[in-house]
Task: structure prediction
Amino acid sequence: MESQTTTNEAPPRPLECIQRLQRAISRRDLDAMTACFEPDYTSEFPVHPDRSVGGHTRMRQTWTQIFASVPDIQATLIRWCVAGDTAWAEWEWHGTRVDGAPFVQRGVTIQGVPQDRITWARMYMEPVQEAGPGAAVALQRDLGGRAAR
Result:
């Protein structure tokens, strides 16, 4: 289900930018992606602080690697919300890696878009783990204890 504008007004500029980004990722168009970001934008990964990057050069390096590793990547914009110049977007990025394995990441990004390009982003994208020990075991592992029986 997608969030949608319910009036006949044009979508807010932040949403237009996020939609351009979605199309650029799905077309694997690095130049169109670059045009969605200010040259000195910053990108933070709050749950992985060591992954924080910024600027066109680093963004292009990262996405060049992604496009080479997942040549059929598609970006699905699932839901979004715009408040002022901030856009919240729920995504699924999926495709097939060159080694034949599936590639699926889901999560949320929050972007500052004061004009028509992203100036900052907070990324909460993670690989999808289809199978695992379940919620109770994962919680206990994260808390450093034993799983509840």
